[in-house]
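seq as requested:
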Amino acid sequence: KGNVLPHYDFSCDLFNVGNLLKFPTDIPYIQSKKHVILSADKLKIGITWCGHHLDKANETRSCDPNLFLKLQNNKIQFYSFQKFTTGKKQLPPNIAIDLSENIRCWEDTAAYLSNMDLVIAIDSSVAHLSGAMGKKTFVLLPKEWYRSWAPKGAKISPWYPDMRIFRQFEAENWTSLFSEINTMLYGMTLY
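struct tokens:
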């Protein structure tokens, strides 16, 4: 009660809990048992840009889907894992193949993620699943500190070694993150 902490025998920083509890360190520790084949001669990139509309943090963590236009080129095929979009949060036409009708459960999501060369996602369950599957993942975070992903300033998640963290430098400014991602994609696709 109040501000007084009860007596305790041990304390631990949040980011050491995984080591103490022996969370899986061999990534991937989640694999899909369902097989879906997406054939493309392009870099396959899964995307999400918006959280669930009932989440209080959704506006802060969601980005404008039009920003994916900056990343488009003839060597990339986007696949949308996005669910629950409305109004201005809908992806413009012909940017991505929409998988939402094919995804009914987590097993479906994992099956499609297993085909991706890269996942670009906001703070979402898709980003966590992608990380647990060992997929190369770029997670987009708002300026305020989301401690669940990594310590402040970190570029790599301690939970998911194949995940790169992109955090806003200025609140509500996603443009600089997409410019940084575009530079990285240039190296991946050599377009």
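The beta strands are 43-47, 76-80, 96-98, 118-122, 137-141, 163-167.
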